[in-house]
Hints:
Radius of gyration of chain B: 28 Å
Helix content of chain B: under 10%
Structural class of chain B: mainly beta
Order of helices and strands of chain A: HHEEEEEEEEEEEEEEEEHEEEHHE
Strand content of chain B: over 45%
Oligomer: heterodimer
Distance between the termini of chain B: 62 Å
Amino acid sequence: MHKKNIYLFIYLAILYSCTKIVPLNNIPADDKLVLNSILNPDSAITVYLSKTSAILDTNIYWINDAEIEVYKNDIFEGLLTNIAAGKYMSSVFPEEGATYSLKINYPGYETPSSSDSIPKMIPLNYSTYTTPVGFDESGFPISEAYINFSDPINQKNYYELIFLEEYNNVLDVFNYFLETDPAFNAEGAPPNYYGLLYFSDELFNGSVYTFKMKFSAGYQMDGDGEYIDSGPYYIVLRSISENYYLYKKSLAWHLFTQGNSISDINSFLVLGDPVDMYSNIENGYGIFASYSSDTTRLHFIP
Amino acid sequence: MKRIFSKKIFFSFLFLIAYTNSFAQTVTISGIITDKKNGEPLINATVFNKTNNSGCTTNNFGYYLLYGNLNDTIVVRYSYTGYEEIQQTFFLKHDTIIDIYLNTNIQLNEVVITAKQELNKTDGSVIQIPLEQIKLLPSLAGEPDVLKAYQLMPGIKAGKEGNSSLYVRGGSPDENLIILDDIPLYYINHLGGFVSIFDANAINDIKLIKGGFPARYGGRLSSVIDIRMKDGNDSDLEGEVSAGIIATKLSINGPVKKGTSSYMLSFRRCNLDLFSRLFTTMQSGGLYSAGYTFYDLNFKFAQKLNAKNKLYIALYSGRDKIFINQNYTPSLNSNISYKYDNDNTWGNNLLSIKLNSVVNTKFFINTTLAVSRFDYQTNISYKNIDTQTKDVLQSANINFTSGISDLTGKIDADYFLSSKHTLRSGVNVIYHIFTPGINAYSNTYSDNIDTTFGSENISGVESYIYAEDEWTINKFLAANIGLHFSNYVVDDNFSSLQPRIIVNYNLNKSASLKASFTVMQQNLHLLSNSGVGLPSDLWVPATSIAKPEKSNQYTMGYAYLFSELSSRLTIETYYKQITNLIEFKSGASFFGSGADWQQQVVTGGKGNVYGIEFLFQKQEGRLTGWVGYSLSKNTRQFNELNNGEPYPYKYDSRHDISVVATYKIKKNIIISSDWVYSGGNAITLGYTQYPVINETYIQAPNPFVTTFDNAYIYPSKNNYRLPAYNRLDVAINFIKQKPKGERTWSFSIYNVYNRLNPYFVYFNYDKQGEKHLYQFTLFPVIPSFNYSFKFN
């Protein structure tokens, strides 16, 4: 929060300032295939294939006529079928614990390949919340959620947490938190990051852990002035692969430091150099990663 | 074993120079050289024996000592840039103490520079710009800045536009040793770097050394900026008031007891909060006010204890503040109002006590004790207040602090051993306490996990001893040879023996050659996410993981004096190797991160900087100024960055040119101008892009939707050059003598031809949906004025 105020005087100076186009001629661009796929046991295998383009190009070049081979634990499973612009699918649902590999054949390009192992699901022990645990600067009550799970011993685990709010049978992702758990804070997410909460078990490896967060929602009063459940809310805990974790973490920073508008001045003034996007695709770019997830309702505790 | 060996070498060196003596029948002439008008000591003034072409310069307290042969009659010339010289004849029968008072010549047109006087010095690559000339130069928003004038010299860059940081010969700002009356300061900028903390009215002298560092200096790699505060006029009361767009200033100094004690008090306050508070209050309908301000307070008291001892007490306090104050009452009938205050403050405080002792005419000792602190704080407070009773119903406070505190003790001794040898030696001990608290993200969750997971306070003891010999070997050859031994204790013990050699060879009366070799070590690192030097940048100690930074610098130079033009040409080439640099890992930041800073940095970086600098200065006449040109290359290399390949430093530019001119149109009208050109800074720019999968969330039975973002491929670090930078500034000064003092009106235009220089670039789309690279310009043409009145 304090950073915003440090910039105050810089913004005052900006009022004076102006912009203009910088000619960008003869910039050498890479020409490689791009593979994007996130696997999970609840969805059929889906892969998106495209190629790189010059930085000022506004088009995406999808590729529809490539041959994409799928391997499960190094055994050939079959070819994917192109069903839409750059989108390839299989009818097979991937399995927890299995290692999947992809190999793409497309004339005129190097052969991209990649592999990832689908992590086993980590079940949620319980998830609860209570209101109020305080009041914000506008006097509104603050709620607090407690999400409990058991981190496996002697292995490195990565997680992603999603907070869902249901209203009229429609789900919405709630991602504005007043305070988040140290496990997420320790990741060093970019300022104003409102994405999903990714974190590793660095701070609690092998223990039963309660992830906490505070938010300005979840309150409702009955006729007696008592706070009651205003949900329902749901918690999705994804057990994510290391590739997924590195991809999510670098994506947050990569997009933040790209600086695609004047409002991203922070990235230039404060956050220094651009951050490379993580990729685990050999002979190409993109990401091939995976997760397994568990979902439970967030129960209100008065 | 290695350490013991190093100590042996050091003490052998001391022994050798102590016995290198001249046994001729000599007598001495010594004393203090001061400004006749205000009694301020003149530092680096020249004392030149015309009879035998020998000479010396005054030390930081204006003290000099000159040798002559018994029974000789000699003519001694005392001179100082911007002052009328004095010549005196002495018949040398015994040691003589004589204090000299020089008259200032503010118009800078009667300075006499002689070949011998300039060429005799062995002070490496030293730059000094008279403060009166700095005040006449054009300035941004009318606020003269003592450091920005030095950015116009070859080999020194500003980095970002408008910033008062100094990048000296490719080094970053943390590699500058900035000392105020012998005590190091850390963060020296106000207003996001646009104004330095040094108030020109409080400064007596500034010297910048960019290579060939004498052994007395240590602890940083790239430059020394030695700043001396005024002592205060010891005979008459005088002062100055001035007002500009940015700041209002008042300085006053005078005797406490004439000829015995004096004081100097200077205060500067930024005016911007007055406008911003009013503006934001009006804009928000009284809901909140916000703004920015700073102040600087300099105070010094000087007391002659007796003929041989003088005591100084100096104080500096400076602070910046950015604030937002909010008051909110939901409705007229509401019983509760909410108050929110957010203050960010940062600044330096320094208190020093110094004793100058002339033990005998040949032996001068300076003892200093000081305490200093730089800190950065954020205070956020929420209050719910009962509108009827005014009771505070609920409150919360969040406080972030980071900083560095130093307790310093040092003794420096000058020993004028003979006409050929002036010895300097000293010892310095600094006890540091680092508070990298900005790393500690405080959190109310603390039941089953330690939420204060940032870096802990670290203390360290940095000490050094040094010895140097300013040695006039013969009529042509002079040298300053020294050793600087430093020891630093933190979680490990780091020792370093640093040789310093500066040699000057006079080819003839007009030309000389200079060469130097210096080894430096820096026991602190500055962690910065920015290129603009924000106060939240973090000073951290060297540790066993992030070892002390080291540099070796080699210089060679040629100087030629054009006596008939009162001008000087210097050409200097240098090569600097830097090791043990650190940088943040890709994507790492101390903001909001729980990891210790040592886990977030890459270490073992190397820097290579080399270049050649040309400087032609005209120091006399109606037209004065200089032309500077620098050709340089500056690279960095880290095993974990850029695939281990070297890459250009962000402020690497091949060509830098500066032209500075001051012209006296009439006795009371002086016009000045500067023009600068610099090759574009290096940035990391994507040349290729591709779609990368992401999830977007919508309100639906299944809220997860697959979308794609644009990922950029960066070919290498700092692969793209921004357009070149250039700018012309002009100022005109109207000076008028009034019955009670001197009035000056200064009008400046910054960036006269409105060059749109890039501050940074970014990609964006135009109205037709085409994507372009845009540049952002911070300062277009900016006119300003300043009024000042010097009273006496």
